[in-house]
Amino acid sequence: MRVRAILEAKGHAVVTAAPSATVTELVDVLARKSIGAVVIDDGEGGLAGIMTERDVVRALAAHGPSALDRPVADFMTRDVVTAGFEETVDEIMDRMTNGKFRHVPIMDGVRLAGMVSIGDVVKCRMELIEAEASAMRDYIATA
Questions:
Q1: Is residue 83 within 8 Å of 107, Cβ to Cβ?
Q2: Which structural domains are found in the chain, ordered by start?
Q3: Per-residue confidence of the chain (143 residues) as pLDDT tens digits?
Q4: Of the candidates 118, 114, 108, 103, which has an alpha carbon nearest to the alpha carbon of residue 84?
Q5: What's the pTM value of the predicted model, to 2 decimals?
């Protein structure tokens, strides 16, 4: 299965923030939306970075409560691993596992087109496993 199929099922909406947003504002968005990452928009529909729960924890550990009043640009991950529509779920899963991250922005050229989380990947894999098991049961039943 390809990334395109995941986005067709879940949608292309991505929660974004400006690099100038404060960490407090970002934390509020994470909590309100029950998400683990926010893409930091470059102002042109592209990607400047990503700010995750882990980035927030690192900022607080390094700078204490004063980090909450600083812009996310000070702490965001700038070297973001991205993927395209035609990459497979297995490729994304390997990348997430090896890189120890849980969110991958999906790009259509230089334009942000969606976000895939580890939860999306696991859900997809479970659906494939269930479909294979069902096909196997049907095959055995007709043999």
A1: yes
A2: 3-142 (3.10.580.10)
A3: 899 999 999 989 999 999 999 999 999 999 999 999 999 999 887 899 999 999 999 999 999 999 999 999 999 999 999 999 999 999 999 999 999 999 999 999 888 999 999 999 999 888 888 888 888 888 888 87
A4: 108
A5: 0.86
